[in-house]
Amino acid sequence: MKFKKIVCTGCSLLCDDIIIEENDNGRIEQIIGACVRGKERFKSIKSQNRILTPLIRENDDLKEAAWDEALKKTLQMIEDSSNPILYGFSTTSCEAQAEGIRLARAIDGFIDSNSTICQGITLEKSKETGVTMTTLTEIINKGDIILLWGFNPIESIPRLLNKILFSRGKFRMTGREIKTLIVIDPVETASYKIMGPRDIPLLIKPASDLELIQALKKICKEEMEIPSEGIAGIDKMDLERLVANLVDSENISILIGQGMLQPSDDGDPLKELLELIEILNTVNEKGRVSIIMGGGHFNMTGFDQTALSLTGKNHSLQFKDSTLIDTEDNIITKIEKNDFDLSIIVGTDPISHLPLEISKKLVTKPMILIDNKKNSTYYVADVVLPTAITGVETDGTAFRIDEVPIKLTKLYDPPNDLPSDEELLIKINNKIKEE
Ligand code: SF4
Question: How far is the CA of 17 from the centre of ligand 1 (A)?
Answer without folding.
Answer: 10
